[in-house]
Amino acid sequence: MDIKSKNNKYVIKLILVISILIAAIGVCLSYPKIEKDSSKFKYNMFESSSAFLDDIYNTNYALYYKMSKDDDNVLRPSDMILDLKGATSDQEIITRYQEKVDKKIYDWNDNLNNKLKNLDYYVRNKETKQSSKRQGFSQNPFLYDDVYRDNLSTLKEQYRFYMMVDYDENGNMTISRVHNGNKVTIYDKLQVIDKNKGNFDTYELENVEIKPIKNMTYVYAVAQNLQYNDAISNRVYDQTMYSYSDASMLFINIAMAFIVLVSLFVPYIEVKDIKIIDKLSKLPIEILVIIVSCAFAFIYSSSEIIMTSSIKGELINLTQISLSKEVVSALTYLLNIIYFTVCFSVISFGVFILKKIYKERIIHYFKNNSLIVKLISYCRRKIKKAWNNLTSFDLKDKNNSKLVKLLVINLIIIAIMCSFWFIGIIVAVIYSIILFTLIRKRYTMINNNYNGLLKLTNEIASGNLDVNTEEDLGVFNSLKEDVSQVQQGFKNAVKEEVKSQKMKTELISNVSHDLKTPLTSIITYVDLLKDENLTKEKREQYLDVLDRKSQRLKDLIEDLFEVSKATSGDVNLNMIDVDIVSLMKQTLLELDDKIIQSDLVIKKNIPSEKVILRLDSQRTFRVFENLILNITKYAMRGSRVFIDIIDLEDIVTISFKNMSEEEISYDIGDITERFVRGDKSRNTEGSGLGLAIAKSFVELQGGSFDVNIDGDLFKVIITFKKNLNGNLIR
């Protein structure tokens, strides 16, 4: 199936290419027919072109002045042509108009010698018998009837146009001896030009009259072989080009229709994988429109660009290449085929793009592929952002500048409306409607934001502390942030209160348990001692147990009082200079039997010199003692314990690290609370107050007490600042 699909695509692409080539070759093969039919579409520029007859009219006056001026050149054109008897303007305006007419006559004479070089002429003043002509022009065949009749066929072969214009003593014009033009049509058009006097701009001066030409004979002729590149040759070229364009339109339209139909029948999916089509289809639609429009322009302007010069055999001559006639003809056709192939390919591609737009939906395609739509969207976002920045207010800030900007904009709009007079009233009504719509929309938004804020506060007031506060409340956002902070404060307070209640419950339970255990033992052994039949050994054994349990109860009560006083701050500290290195060694020495019994290895990293701090030695010893005892109870037997004292520039850190025997599953923040023990089953001796007392004593002396847990590694870090002066009394 895949091979068959690929073959189908190949065949379709081949058909498309062949169709484009057929259309291009077909247009080129129609050139002989176009050349033949072009004569049907030609218009006569000598009678139909107002520009040519304007030139004839202007030349008449230019030559009239030339043949009538005096020998001293004192007579100006305006003196001879203008009749100022009825002029009502002041002298300055009249003088300015005279200068303008003089310039026109001089310019028309220059045009005759420069821009109308292909126009042969002969002029004769019937009064003075003076005459003038273009060099090389023979006027005799036109002036005499018998000579004209004898040379008529020769004149028609030699000239593509000629005519004779005669003015009598009253200024009446007669047209005669016209070739390639209608005498009546030419006469009528020259009369219209003369009647309107538009070439003299008579509207600039009131009641001015243009004197008619009198007693003059003109002969004008345009040769078949145009020797110069001037206005006449350009008009002849345009005439030929337009005739070829009109004659070729049928063939071009047939080729265009053929290409469009073939492109419509070819599915877009079959050609979309062609690289050039795939790349071009990703261009913005505006660029594609320009490309396709250029193709249309090139096709329908082909008569001017390539067709006329190709038919006349002048295309290759433009490149100044000297080749044989057959080679020139072949190259000409090849260039034309390439030209139309490219143009028709672009048209075909344009059809495929239209099919793609239809397939992808017009709105979706323009949204993704239009520069104008993207620019409008960008401007819309920017305008919306600027409008929001201008109209959004934070109630916590001063908004005077924004209010001033809004008022200035409103003032400008009102000023513009006032400049339109009555129409300004209509514009003001429209502006008021728009302003009402914007204000109402803004009011509705603020009202909705206020209701959202009110709903938020009501939810919090009713106890719902988890209500969502992410909604945008516009001008109330700053107030919403404050409400959110209050909400978070309430949540934290409730959380702390729940935690406090839980800890109180656990505290009562733990105190009850730890007090009840030794009391139960004491009561039990007291009952046993009441037995009169006890042996001396048993009695001493029971008394020893009673002594130990009483001592434990005493220690528990003392610890409880100690931590209570530390928590309340009712502790007198005796601050002295203490060498904590010596104090640590003393603590380890006194607890050596406990350490040996726990089968622990102490690894000390302490300075060899003294480290003096301003501390209460008794409370600091108690801190070290509690921590080491805690280690002997809960550290893994046979493991190493690391004790470090690090003397830094501003602080001294003391760290205790040990590996826990049991898995550490409790919260790191709870281990320093009262009656909290690492042994949740409370099988080991202890009050659960050791770390709490240690932390309280450290903080009372201005230090910090931090507990870190990494897996089963338990770490306590004590930090004291140096140079604490005076005793701290809590």
UniProtKB/TrEMBL annotation:
InterPro entries: HATPase_C_sf (IPR036890), HATPase_dom (IPR003594), His_kinase_dom (IPR005467), HisK_dim/P_dom (IPR003661), HisK_dim/P_sf (IPR036097), HssS/ArlS-like (IPR050398). The chain crosses the membrane at residues 250-271, 283-300, 333-354, 406-439. The keyword ATP-binding applies. It catalyses: ATP + protein L-histidine = ADP + protein N-phospho-L-histidine. It comes from the Bacteria. Keywords: ATP-binding, Cell membrane, Kinase, Membrane, Nucleotide-binding, Phosphoprotein, Transferase, Transmembrane, Transmembrane helix, Two-component regulatory system. It is found in: Cell membrane. SUPFAM superfamilies: ATPase domain of HSP90 chaperone/DNA topoisomerase II/histidine kinase, Homodimeric domain of signal transducing histidine kinase. One of its GO terms (molecular function) is phosphorelay sensor kinase activity. Its EC number is 2.7.13.3. Residues 510-707 form the Histidine kinase domain. It is a multi-pass membrane protein. This is histidine kinase. It comes from Romboutsia weinsteinii. The lineage of its organism: Bacteria, Bacillati, Bacillota, Clostridia, Peptostreptococcales.
